[in-house]
Amino acid sequence: MPLHKGHAESDERPLSVNPFYGEADPVSGMIEAPPKHRLPDGPTPPSAAYQLVHDELMLDGNSRLNLATFVTTWMEPQAGILMAECRDKNMIDKDEYPRTAELERRCVAMLADLWNAPDPSAVVGCSTTGSSEACMLAGMALKRRWAQRNADRYPGARPNLVMGVNVQVCWEKFCNFWEVEARLVPMEGERFHLDPQAAAELCDENTIGVVGILGSTFDGSYEPIADLCAALDALQERTGLDVPVHVDGASGAMIAPFLDEDLVWDFRLARVTSINTSGHKYGLVYPGVGWALWRDKEALPEELVFRVNYLGGDMPTFALNFSRPGAQVVAQYYTLLRLGRSGYRAVQQTTRDVARSMADRVEALGDFRLLTRGDELPVFAFTTAPGVDSYDVFDVSRRLRESGWLVPAYTFPPHREDLSVLRVVCRNGFSEDLADLFLEDLSRLLPELRRQSGPHTRDKSAATGFHH
Ligand SMILES: *Cc1c(COP(=O)(O)O)cnc(C)c1O
User: Fold this and answer.
1) Do residues 48 and 23 touch, judged by C-beta distance below 8 A?
2) Burial class (CB in 10 A: 0-12, 13-18, 19+), 340
3) 55, 77, 206, 371: least CB-packed within 10 angstroms?
4) Do 77-336 and 351-462 show the same overall fold?
5) Which ligand 1 atom is nearest residue 468's CA?
6) Alpha-carbon distance 108 to 111, whole Å?
7) Which fold, 351-462?
């Protein structure tokens, strides 16, 4: 979470209270205005407190118009009811809420099947707060396995993790927090994600694993997981090094099984030892849930698993935190049950169709060059076409905000820092109709942008944020 600073000024204006909200003080008819940065001395009546908080939130953006985030912004009312019913259940109390725990177990089993585990009964897995926690757990398992295998040299040897420079920030966190060297395969020319051969060449006896991303955050492209495994097979033949692969399927692990059934990226590949996904991205659940699965017990060292008995029972758990709401896991089970395979396929196909047609139409405007076309993740990235120099992607992002659209603009990582792009993430609920409105707004802006004498945005980092 953002690291906030405390507030220094002592006397500043309190929250402003609309006279209509007053119901407490019979003399003035007004409730006392609560301070902003100090715990109020006493209570505020619930209706006034509700109105004050509600009003504060009015200027938050409209989540449905947010084309920056991958995270679910719409669920059915029934899912909302179930979540409300479960908001008091603590996921960690497996013994007190055995049925919630059972639904979590069923979700893991369904995902093991969906990701083609050769022996689903051997799979171990758990829910998490999102892919970031899932990646921390998967990375820890890789590191511990490596340490066990290299007990004679570790500590002393410095472990490393190989991955594309396009990895999501959670992998940089993992390497920083757990003191693992990040070995990054750079982008090259028009290749915006990991190259299998280059990844294999970065591996040595201290490599704990290679991360392949199914669905790069930067442009929505799938990394070539099967080729990566083949390159590592060849490496093993040459050198004897046996390097496991973790697939970060935060988005794609809930897209590819439904729309790209012939793509082999999952547990069908013997080298893939673990996979994560974000239930709250294309798993179609509101924020707060992710999943991590390991092929078998060998892939997840037993010594990382904790058993506590002071809540009753003796359920093994693997997690960074302890208490966590059960509602998201229940909502995930609901969605899996509700949609089934063909339902998920229909939803994801619709989303992909919207992304592809939007990408084509953006290209047809003539001012832009597409990097991706929405045919892998339903995400596409584009930049200004050669010869467009009166404005840049940061201007486009800023001007789109005027009509309520949140479309991030950002620069690419090393070797392609010269490249700045806009990225559109299509999600369930972003309809063809909304896409029409978006295209109308974008087309309407172009004549004005073309008349600019040059790009306006000086401070690019402040222009827009890069999300997830
Ligand atoms: C979003 C994302 C993450 C982080 O997932 P959260 O669920 O937001 O914690 C990790 N990896 C990739 C590839 C992502 O797209």
Assistant:
1) yes
2) exposed
3) 77
4) no
5) 1
6) 5
7) Aspartate Aminotransferase, domain 1 (3.90.1150)
What tokens appear for 419 in the block? Answer: 């490249």
Crossing angle for the helix pair 327-364 and 77-85, to the nearest 10 degrees: 150
CA torsion sign, 117 to 120 to 125 to 130? positive
CATH class of 77-336: alpha beta
Q: Which residues form ligand 1's pocket by a CB distance below 6 Å?
A: 70, 130-132, 135, 168, 170, 213, 215, 217, 248, 250-251, 278, 290, 468
Phi first, then psi, for residue 447 (nearest 5°) are -55, -40
Taking the CA atoms of residue 330, residue 335, residue 338 and residue 339 in that order, the dihedral angle to the nearest 10 degrees is: -160
Using an 8 Å Cβ cutoff, are 226 and 265 in contact?
yes
3-state secondary structure of 53: helix
Residue type, 452: Q
Note the Cα 107 to chain centre separation in Å.
19
Report residues of the chain scoring pLDDT below 50: 462-463, 467
- Ligand 1 centre to CA of 131 (Å) is 5
278 forms beta bridges with 290
Domain locations along the chain: 19-60, 77-336, 351-462
Closest atom, ligand 1, to C-alpha of 215: 13
pTM of the model: 0.93
Q: Residue 392 to residues 359, 449, 458: CA-CA distances in angstroms?
A: 18, 9, 11
Strands 245-248, 368-370: pairing kind: unpaired
Tens digits of per-residue pLDDT, 355-371? 999 999 999 999 999 99
Q: Which residue's CA is the nearest one to ligand 1's atom 3?
A: 131
